[in-house]
Design brief:
Arc Repressor Mutant, subunit A, Homeodomain-like_sf, HTH psq-type domain-containing protein
Length: 113
Amino acid sequence: MPGSHNTKRRKVGARTYRNFSNEQLEKAIDEVKSGKLSIRNASEKFSIPKSTIARKVKQKNMNDPGHPTALTQKDENIIVEKIIQAGKWGFPFSRLDIQRIVKAHLDKSGFKN
């Protein structure tokens, strides 16, 4: 049946997204940092935008996006261990139970929001 297959066409002038691998990016960054290539030459050699290489070399905007988490990784791991242990003992938790466990842990640790 003609026209039954689903093909997507990009609009003319539409932005192209990342068309390089992490390995290529790492190689480009390594060569720029070691002084073998300039940012411009690495951009041409690996077909990666100059701005991307420059940003990675200068390590700008390397933080995780979004708001910082309220709990530390250590606190999260402690809470997860408590929940898993209770599950092994045969106590399934509802969402409210988990919220109470988290609140009890935070109250005990003196967490201030």
